[in-house]
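ingest -> validate -> predict -> emit
validate: passed (alphabet ok, no gaps, 120 aa)
predict: started
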Amino acid sequence: MSRQRHNYKNLKIWKVGLEIAKEISDQIEKFPKHERYDLTSQMSRCSISIPSNISEGSARTDKSFNHFIDIALGSSFELGTQLLIAKHKKYIKQETVEGLEEKITEWQRMTMGFQNNLKF
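emit:
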């Protein structure tokens, strides 16, 4: 079993995940106040989960890190669904959704590639 640890601040998957979280944070500030405890909260938690699980898992063995990456990936797919709901409710513009979806998809691709290279 590999005992290698990763410095999360040097990982591109963490950096891009943090960018996604920041962009989501900026967008949900514009949502109606009545969504504060519903869609806004869900989107915030999902987006924050992405870089948070990368950083937490990076201090673990590769086997354990793999689990944290799975959680981050799950959050990214959940966030994609929530973006579509926000677009349906007209809280977010089509172009913005498309840009975020593209960034999330690219993050998922690079994260799965990173995950495939973990040694355990």
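Residues 73 and 108 are 7 Å apart (CA to CA).
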